[in-house]
Predict the structure.
Amino acid sequence: MAMPAAVLPACSAGSLPRTFSLLPRRLLTIPAFPALRDGSLGCSLVGVGASSRRTPTIRRNAATETVVPYVPGSGKYIAPDYLVKKVSAKEVEELVRGERKVPLIVDFYATWCGPCVQMAQDIEMLAVEYEDNALFVKVDTDDEYEFAKDMQVRGLPTLYFFSPDQNKDALRTEGLIPIDMIRNIIDNEL
């Protein structure tokens, strides 16, 4: 007894083996990350706001030591338990407007975003690789929702690349991008 073709998704009704025709439709659909305009994977911020914010939690493995002070322009923004420091909107504005000798890369992320976690690993590796040649910081969009909205962050992760030359425009990427593309932007575009 085969189920009617209307139960199966229209695009795959003819391509599935006969043994799968007995499965109900809900078992045939596979959820995926939403694709962004450029086809990359990412998380959407649509519907995220003050009403749906989660309260920040304290990390169990957070170090109790004091944070190593930041030296502007040094490319070193190191804390005891992570390399890329989480900053506030005010700190980002100061870094962008301040005088720097190295490019500034701002990662807008959320803790609940899967692609953001994957991108964070690449950003941490790049922070080590470009220790003296680039400055990496991150902004939690749950904590800085208004700032993310002002910066037109609609999908996560979003990276902003600011050149040390104040006359150059900032570059922006949205969604999960390869680590080589980030290197290319830092080395050739800034």
The first helix runs from residue 25 to 28. The first strand starts at residue 43 and ends at 44.
